[in-house]
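Design request, tokens follow.
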């Protein structure tokens, strides 16, 4: 018997097959699997492919399966993913959680602390010592995702177009972005972006371009990355306040491709997080987040996993 952990993100999906005690024996990756951006059918195809690739059903149905996926801690989306897994043959001990939880477990070795995720999208998710959870952000590219790769890329594109129109400052992002997309003029970006098969991923791919421009001294690029770090710090503060953790000792775990794309942004955020919770430590995820999904599946297989329960946030909406 085996357990399966799956980390399903907006850009890639990683699955790992492991022994009941959590030793990984096979791993595979496929494209992104996000219900909001890819749809239920596409998600089912990716999950099927990645589970087949690791041999999840070679010796019968897995003992336990954990899927970490953005947004699935909302009841309707969790139900949809569980339905997909049932159709794939997983009917017992199926754990569906937010991808930030498996990243937190991967980085902190337990479901305790605050995880700041900045990949294609973004979210901040935390769990306190009593097992209560809170979140901020993670509402998708239209409603939120500040600090994500898409957010940074979208701001960079806007800076390029403002500079081209004479509405904004000159920036080295103009030639750098044009080179990245293989076009000669800013107006050619219209087709490059709007004609892309995966528009969100195309925009999010600009993270390293913005970091390179910042490293070369471009002020616009630096301001964009500083803004992204500030937004993530605000979200982290929201979660720490909701969980009454600002004075506690706990880990901030940084996960997601945007931190690899911009080490400067990660350092800037680390400094800001020191202001949010001075006694906390900041650590990058030292291993792939899928290892956190494996750990959850391992505990579920032993009947030990208890899903964190969200606290009701106390937010003044300004109602009169």
């Amino acid at each position: 018997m085996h357990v399966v952990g799956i980390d399903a993100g907006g850009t890639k999906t990683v699955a790992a097959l492991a022994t009941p005690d959590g030793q990984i024996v096979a791993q595979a990756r496929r494209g992104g699997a996000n219900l909001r951006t890819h749809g239920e059918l596409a998600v089912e195809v990716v999950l099927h492919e990645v589970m087949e690739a690791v041999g999840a059903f070679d010796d019968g149905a897995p003992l336990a399966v954990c899927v970490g996926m953005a947004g699935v801690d909302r009841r309707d989306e969790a139900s949809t993913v569980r339905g997909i897994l049932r159709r794939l043959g997983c009917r017992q001990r199926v754990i569906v959680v937010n991808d930030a939880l498996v990243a937190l477990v991967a980085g902190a070795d337990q479901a305790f602390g605050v995880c700041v995720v900045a990949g294609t999208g973004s979210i901040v998710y935390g769990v306190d010592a009593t097992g209560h959870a809170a979140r901020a952000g993670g509402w998708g590219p239209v409603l939120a995702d500040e600090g994500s790769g898409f957010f940074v890329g979208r701001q960079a594109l806007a800076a390029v177009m403002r500079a081209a129109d004479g509405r904004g400052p000159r920036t080295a992002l103009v030639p750098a972005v044009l080179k990245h997309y293989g076009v000669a003029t800013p107006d050619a970006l219209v087709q490059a972006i709007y004609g892309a098969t995966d528009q969100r991923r195309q925009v999010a791919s600009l993270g390293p371009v913005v970091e390179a421009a910042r490293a070369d001294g471009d002020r616009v690029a630096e301001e964009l990355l500083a803004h992204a770090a500030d937004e993530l710090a605000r979200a982290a503060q929201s979660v720490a306040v909701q969980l009454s953790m600002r004075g506690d000792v706990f880990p901030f775990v940084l996960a997601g491709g945007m931190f690899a794309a911009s080490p400067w942004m990660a350092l800037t955020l680390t400094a800001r997080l020191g202001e949010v919770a001075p006694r906390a430590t900041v650590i990058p995820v030292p291993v792939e987040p899928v290892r956190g999904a494996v750990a959850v599946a391992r505990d579920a297989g032993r009947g030990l996993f208890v899903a964190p329960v969200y606290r009701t946030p106390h937010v003044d909406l300004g109602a009169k």
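Comment from the thread starter after seeing the answer: thanks! The radius of gyration is 20 Å.
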